[in-house]
Specification:
By secondary structure, the protein is α+β, with helices and mostly antiparallel strands. Helix content is about 35%, strand content about 35%. Strands 1, 2, 3, 4, 5, 6, 7, 8 and 9 form a nine-stranded antiparallel β-sheet that branches. About 30% of the residues are buried. About 15% of the residues have low confidence.
């Protein structure tokens, strides 16, 4: 093969970023721009459909470039590109006759599921399914489609009941659990709740019920640290969690960290999603009924 040095440099550069995801996004955006096969003046005269084809096409091309140049932001870029790809079906000529939309969905899913490959590492069939806490690429490809599909089918950001005053602790307690399994549709949003030290920005998760295994909570009241533990913790009724940080592995495979600023939770989460190895900062929790099994309470200076 010619130019072995140049191909080696290109291969090394390609492995440090979601190259194929970015390439598919750019191809999808180009297809949305080229399918109408009309001059710019004709596209503009078509109104919203023509302008949407230009805007979404350019946005997908820009998203592909961002995946190449800013690989550390691949989660944020991929989710936005996926939303634009699905939107192109209704806003343009059926998403470029489905071709551009499909390329955009596959490219954004590949970008979302991409994980860094250590320099010099080779693909090995014997490599474990879970790598560097990031999970398999298969689930990473499917996850954005599930999130956007659930978002399109309904749901709205969580809001507190009118007149309800929520006061949280100054320092959110830390919570760990080996399994977090919500039941019923889970609505989410980002808002501010009052504390003694001023407003606190939190993620709000609402669900019908939830089950937690090996639940552990630690908080500090003055100079003493309080620890609450339970083998099982079942919440039912109107369950609402207010969290400043939420870290865990979706389906036990894809590990993510959600915060109100870094990666907000989607407006609707499918009910079959569960998380393992959860670590959270819990500002407040409300529930109609809480049933704990094997409850323990400890205090230490």
């Amino acid at each position: 093969m010619p130019l072995p040095d140049a191909r080696r440099v290109l291969r090394r550069w390609r492995r440090t970023r979601p190259f194929w995801g970015g390439l598919l996004l750019m191809l999808g955006g180009a297809e949305l721009l080229l399918v109408p096969l009309s001059p710019l003046t004709v596209l503009v005269s078509l109104g919203l459909g023509g302008l949407a084809a230009i805007g979404i096409g350019l946005a997908l091309i820009a998203a592909g470039i961002f995946l190449w140049l800013l690989p550390h932001a691949h989660h944020y870029v991929s989710v936005n590109a996926l939303i634009l790809s699905v939107l192109s079906f209704a806003a343009t000529n059926l998403g470029g006759f489905l071709v551009g939309m499909t390329l955009g969905i596959v490219g954004s899913a590949m970008g979302f599921g991409w994980t860094p490959v250590p320099e010099g590492a080779e693909e090995d069939a014997e490599r474990p399914r879970v790598r560097d806490g990031q999970g398999t690429r298969t689930l990473g490809v499917l996850l954005p489609v599930v999130i956007v599909g659930a978002t399109l089918w309904g749901g709205s950001p969580a809001e507190a009941a009118p007149g309800q005053e929520i006061v949280a602790a100054r320092t959110p307690p830390t919570v760990t659990t080996t399994l977090f399994a919500p039941q019923g549709f889970l609505l989410a949003g980002v808002r501010e709740i009052p504390t003694a030290d001023g407003p606190l920005k939190v993620m709000v998760l609402k669900m019908k019920a939830a089950s937690l295994t090996d639940y552990r909570l630690k908080t500090r009241d003055g100079s003493r640290e309080l620890a609450l533990g339970a083998d099982t913790l079942d919440l039912s009724g109107s369950v609402t969690l207010y969290l400043t940080k939420f870290k865990g592995c979706l389906e036990g495979l894809l590990c993510l960290t959600f915060t109100p600023d870094k990666l907000p939770v989607p407006p609707v989460v499918p009910p079959f999603v569960f998380m393992t190895d959860v670590q959270a900062e819990q500002a407040l929790v409300t529930s109609d009924l809480i049933v704990a099994g094997g409850l323990t309470l400890k205090a230490s200076a």
